[in-house]
Design a protein that fits this description.
This protein is of the alpha/beta class. It is built from 9 helices and 14 strands. The chain folds into 2 domains: 237 residues, Aspartate Aminotransferase, domain 2 (3-Layer(aba) Sandwich), CATH 3.40.640.10; 103 residues, Alpha-Beta Complex (Aspartate Aminotransferase, domain 1), CATH 3.90.1150.10. A hairpin with a 4-residue loop joins strand 6 and strand 7. The radius of gyration is 21 Å and the shape is globular. The structure holds pyridoxal-5'-phosphate.
Length: 356
């Protein structure tokens, strides 16, 4: 049976990305050696990193003066690297979910943290708006897509301070105005590569301004200077990321990724809104994530939740159980998810509706 992969992360990758990576694991560039057996300093590996960096810059239209880094540690490591490198006295955070809250917690170890707004009281079911950002903060940190709660901030906010963005789960799904940010980061395992590599886009001249000592490995300058090669980088996930970047470019770039994301999300949200059995969990329609689509059973059908999960699983749907903090269902629709998978899920929802 065909599987439809709605996993939240690690998650679906284009088939050719997996195939090309598998080939390189068996034989890298006809060298007779596996990608896993060669030095990261081997002359054939440097072009992999160089091309991945160049494609990042091209696809996201990154202005001059920024570096693209491939690091270890996950997005969670960036929760501490960001304040380590940028927070001198005070930073602002928009609290839109579990990940935002974790980022904020780390920052508190480095200086004063201003929570400009929060939707915690409403179980993060919307993105707060009309907040004010103090003019004297070093940056405003936002989580552009809240993977667990299914909300998304798709416009890079206009504020009078530099932005830092956790884009773990929506990178390459829309154009971004990188010039508003001093740092954009994310774990690769949602929309880019297998787990194990973290991407960081950092503005070079924003680094080196804090007065504290920064441990070498946690200092962005180390990795800017070293071209992500200060120590051994995660070579296999970087190779896979390059394959994904090539795939995105060949498909038509970020604008085409955005068109597909809109198509998938419009189809699925329309069905959630139409089908009597289900309701969406995000209250403001404009805040609804295109990447992680969350819904629950309508109150009068609450007892059918486990039945629908079984029904859909029997028909090939994978990974649609909602995160425990929201319940219900979450269909993650990342860049690589074909529209056919969304149609298959909608068919399940309609068939199930007919039975009840
Ligand atoms: C998954 C996720 C994280 C955590 O990523 P790790 O790489 O596992 O540390 C952080 N932020 C967001 C928005 C995520 O979706």
């Amino acid at each position: 049976m065909k599987k439809h992969n709605f996993n939240a992360g690690p998650s679906i990758l284009p088939r050719e990305v997996i195939e090309n990576t598998a080939k390189a694991i068996l034989d890298f560039n006809g060298s007779g050696l596996s990608l896993m057996e060669i030095s990261h300093r081997a002359k054939d590996f440097k072009p992999v990193v160089d091309e991945a960096v160049a494609l990042f810059k091209e696809l996201l239209n990154i202005p001059d003066g920024y570096s693209v880094l491939f690091l270890g540690g996950g997005a969670s490591m960036e929760f501490c690297m960001v304040p380590y490198n940028f927070l001198e006295k005070k930073a602002a955070y928009l609290n839109t979910g579990t990940w935002a809250k974790k980022a904020m917690k780390e920052a508190k170890g480095f200086g004063e943290v201003v929570e400009v707004a929060s939707s915690a009281d409403a179980n993060y079911s919307f993105i707060p708006k009309n907040y004010t950002v103090p003019a004297d903060v070093d940056y405003l940190h936002i989580t552009t897509n809240n993977t667990i709660f299914g909300t998304e901030l798709r416009t890079d906010p206009d504020v009078n301070v530099p932005l830092v963005g956790d884009m773990s789960s929506d990178i390459f799904s829309r154009p971004v105005d990188v010039s508003k940010y001093i740092c954009i980061y994310g774990g690769a395992q949602k929309n880019l590569a297998p787990a194990g590599v973290t991407f960081v886009i950092v503005k070079n001249d924003a680094v080196g301004k804090v007065s504290r000592y920064i441990p070498t490995m946690l200092n962005y300058q180390t990795h800017i200077d070293g071209g992500s090669m200060f120590n051994t980088p995660p070579v296999v996930p970087i190779y896979a990321a390059l394959q994904t970047l090539r795939w995105i470019k060949a498909q038509g770039g970020v604008t085409e990724m955005e068109r597909r994301a809109i198509e998938r999300a419009d189809m699925l949200y329309s069905e959630i809104d139409r089908n009597k059995l289900f309701v969406g969990t995000v209250t403001e329609k404009e805040d609804r994530s295109r990447m992680n689509i969350c819904f629950v059973m309508a109150p009068e059908y609450k007892e059918l939740e486990a039945d629908f999960l079984n029904f859909a699983t029997e028909r090939g749907m994978v990974g649609i159980k909602g995160h425990r903090s929201v319940g219900g269902f979450r269909a993650s629709c990342y860049n690589a998810l074909p529209v056919e998978s969304v149609k298959a899920l909608i068919d399940c929802m309609q068939e199930f509706e007919k039975l009840h």
